[in-house]
């Protein structure tokens, strides 16, 4: 009898109905895709496994090669898990304002961490990763330009949403960081039903929402195709954080800030449409944000 290994449990995450956030008089249904149920705790498990598996299959990498990646957190944790499974040394470069839980999780899996300043941010981390590759220090997987990223969602997340919603999904809402999730899911859902509306979430100017970005033009992810997104919504940091806390306290769904933003946008959408089935991505779990104090606000009566 052959038993499964941990990588076989990436994907096939639950799609659950929100029960208490949506107006009870609403004709709409809000479904939440719980990506925190992946083994390393986020939606990034999917592209991490995809990028490494497909690079191996092409012969681009082999066990023992050092991998390098710039990350704001979740991709780094996911890559650290996959690298540990497969025996790759891994260097991760990230801004130093990431939460302690994220840094500790990467280190626990055995990754080497290089921190850049908050001012350098993800742009600086990406530049350093490419410089290290040019200097022969390892191979950059490049989640921002690697088509194996959205392919993971085209072959996995998208079909799961279609099947789990019984083909009834009418709107898909996702935060946008590397944009891999929204690119892959959009491609798949539009092939099934071109009428499905794809809504992308970006932070308002000045907002700092972990995992999502309003990229400068020079750093816009190469995998991003604006034709695959029907509408882009700008989200305030305060609203995303408030909805994140409400998800835990009213739905029992413990998640991060970008997920709160996606659900806030979904609730706004539900006030504009009728008889819709709205699916939002819950990107990760809330436990990797505890040290930030975001959950310390007293519950509203």
Automatic annotation (TrEMBL):
Catalytic reactions of this protein: O-acetyl-L-serine + hydrogen sulfide = L-cysteine + acetate
EC class (word): transferase
PROSITE patterns, sorted: CYS_SYNTHASE
Classification via Gene3D superfamilies: 3.40.50.1100
List of residues that carry N6-(pyridoxal phosphate)lysine: 44
Any Pfam family hit: PALP
Pathway entry: Amino-acid biosynthesis; L-cysteine biosynthesis; L-cysteine from L-serine: step 2/2
Keywords for this protein: Amino-acid biosynthesis, Cysteine biosynthesis, Pyridoxal phosphate, Transferase
EC number assigned by the record: 2.5.1.47
Record carries keyword Transferase: yes
GO molecular function terms attached to this record: cysteine synthase activity
Binding-site positions, pyridoxal 5'-phosphate: 74, 177-181, 258
Gene Ontology biological process terms in this record: cysteine biosynthetic process from serine
Positions of the Tryptophan synthase beta chain-like PALP domain: 8-284
Coiled coil: none
Family: Belongs to the cysteine synthase/cystathionine beta-synthase family.
Protein name: Cysteine synthase
Lineage: Bacteria, Pseudomonadati, Pseudomonadota, Gammaproteobacteria, Cellvibrionales
